[in-house]
Amino acid sequence: MSTSDISYKVKSTTPVIPMVYAYVTPEIHRHDGWTKIGYTEQDVDTRIRQQTHTADVVWKKEWQGNATYDDGSGETFRDTDFHSYLRKLKYKNEPTTEWYFISGEESHLRFNEFRENHGVLDSSSISEYVLRSEQNRAVAEAKDYAVLREEGEF
Fold first, then answer.
1. Sheet hosting strand 99-101, strand order edge to edge
2. Half-sphere exposure (Cβ direction) of 5: Cα atoms closer than 13 Å
3. Parallel, antiparallel, or unpaired for β 99-101 and 34-40?
4. Does this model's pTM top 0.85?
5. Alpha-carbon distance 39 to 20, whole Å?
6. What would the pLDDT profile of 104-121 be if each residue is shown by its tens digit?
């Protein structure tokens, strides 16, 4: 048998399943009521251990889920997308961190909701924004300028 008769199978990539996860640190009292929500493309427990091992922090995983929308599109999202959704829902966030004042159970419910609605809130939960007087003047000036000039830019 010559080498031209042998077929080789080369696996060039490993499939990645992006995950969003949540954990708490029960022994850190300032984290009482707060949940860490993150993203990884590796094993979730491995990722959490990377974050907590050196500091010798006890952690408890609350949940993990695929970072894909639940509509069959295969479209993925990041934890930052879910974080934005939580802030739209008025959950407190420790600035510049991935810690949210929400229980593990409630964050899991919100995560499943987010996967279904793509982070779009129904109109009944959207509050109307009222322009300040200087913003109203700027809008009126821009409109007047555009109406008076066929190809004008403002």
1. 60-66, 19-24, 34-40, 99-101
2. 2
3. antiparallel
4. no
5. 4
6. 999 999 999 999 999 898
Largest Cα–Cα distance in the chain? 85
Dump strand ranges (E) for 8-152: 19-24, 34-40, 60-66, 99-101
Q: Looking up tokens 């590796």, which residue turns up?
A: 42
For residue 28, count other CB atoms closer than 10 A to its CB: 13
Would you say 93 and 87 are in contact if contact means Cβ atoms under 8 Å apart? yes
> In which residue are the tokens 């295969």 written?
74
- The structure tokens listed for 72 are 């069959």
Taken in order 101, 104, 108, 111, the sign of the CA dihedral is positive
End-to-end CA distance of the chain: 76
* pLDDT (tens digit per residue) in 27-81: 999 999 999 999 999 999 999 999 999 999 999 999 999 999 999 999 999 999 9
Q: Where are the beta strands (DSSP E) in 56-98?
A: 60-66
